[in-house]
Write a sequence for this structure.
């Protein structure tokens, strides 16, 4: 199966429904989320959303050099797929899909693995299924690519993201955790696509 060209994009529409109860009434909220490869015109908005989401969690712990890296969407799009989620044509979130072990954005990928980086959702649009839609899309890409597994790192404060990864069957791989220079820990997660029921 051939991958669409950059001009054609990677389009997928996901409908997410949330059902709850309030005052005895049954409420349903449906959000249309479109997922595609980010276009050049979206790079600035993607970078801003990623930085805003990371700052909301990490605050000053984000670091200026990493903030600059997060904002440089054009650079990572040269060797990775930068995937964007839109709600009402507004950038709601993004994730970077790394399918080349030689990419400067590949973090400790082993043979047969693809990587996920920089999952982020606009803090104002969280709770609508955007992150799950982005991860699901990347799993589909990995299956098309014939990858054996998906590997990623996530920082300790990103507990909501950890729950999302676990919901898709990612497992913690403590032996591959990475200790940063500032003493923080990056936690390793891996999804074995051969054993997955997805």
């Amino acid at each position: 199966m051939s991958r669409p060209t950059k001009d054609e994009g990677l389009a997928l529409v996901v409908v997410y429904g949330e059902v709850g109860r309030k005052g005895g009434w049954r409420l349903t909220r449906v959000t249309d989320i479109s997922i595609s490869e980010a276009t050049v015109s979206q790079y600035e908005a993607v970078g801003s959303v990623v930085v805003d989401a990371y700052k909301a969690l990490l605050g000053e712990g984000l670091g200026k050099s990493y903030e600059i890296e997060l904002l440089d969407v054009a650079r990572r799009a040269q060797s990775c797929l930068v995937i964007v989620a839109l709600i009402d044509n507004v950038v709601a979130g993004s994730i970077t899909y790394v399918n080349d072990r030689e990419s400067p954005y590949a973090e400790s990928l082993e043979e047969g693995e693809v990587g996920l980086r920089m999952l982020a959702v606009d803090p104002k649009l969280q709770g609508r299924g955007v992150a799950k839609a982005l991860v699901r899309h990347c799993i589909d890409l990995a299956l098309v690519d014939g990858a054996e597994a998906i590997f990623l790192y996530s920082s300790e404060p990103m507990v909501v993201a950890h729950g999302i990864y676990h919901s898709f069957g990612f497992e913690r791989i403590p032996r591959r955790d990475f200790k940063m220079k500032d003493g923080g820990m990056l936690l390793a997660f891996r999804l074995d696509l051969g054993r997955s029921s997805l």
User: Anything to note?
Assistant: The two ends are 19 Å apart (CA to CA). Residues 1-30 have pLDDT under 50 and may be disordered. Helices lie at 43-58, 64-71, 73-76, 130-145, 159-167. The chain has one domain: 31-192.
